[in-house]
Amino acid sequence: MPARLPIHLILDNYGTHKHPAVRAWFERHPRYHLHFTPTSASWLNQVECWFAEITRKRIRRGTFRSVAALVKAIQDYVRANNKEPKLFVWTATSQTIVRKVRFAKRTSGTGH
After folding, report:
1. What angle do CA 103, 43, 101 make, to 5 degrees?
2. Count of CB atoms within 10 A of residue 26's CB?
3. pTM of this structure
4. Digit-coded pLDDT (tens) for 42-98
5. How much is the average pLDDT of 38-44?
6. Is there a contact between 5 and 32 (Cβ–Cβ < 8 Å)?
7. What is the DSSP string of 3-72?
8. Cα separation of 68 and 75, whole Å?
């Protein structure tokens, strides 16, 4: 990106995104503008959909006797998934998404 252009980042509300050291870095780099998704709106983040899928299809179905066994199961799933990846496609209309975002803002009390 050319240095003269601002960069807008869309982030979820994960704690590391709001850590004092991270905030300080962004304060020193005003080119970056942070925008946070509403709390309880993980469906806006497509990687969260993938995390839900791997949890549903592999992690919950397994019994893991060690962390290493869990890591191996996840890596095996990722390898198999990458052989024939499938796109995540939103089926909701923009009106439905906006309505859910407004609802999440009202009920979360965070205002963002």
Report:
1. 20
2. 14
3. 0.51
4. 666 777 788 888 999 999 988 999 999 999 999 999 999 999 988 877 787 888 888
5. 70
6. no
7. TTS-EEEEE---GGGG-HHHHHHHHH-TTEEEEEPPTT-GGGSHHHHHHHHHIIIIITT---SSHHHHHH
8. 10
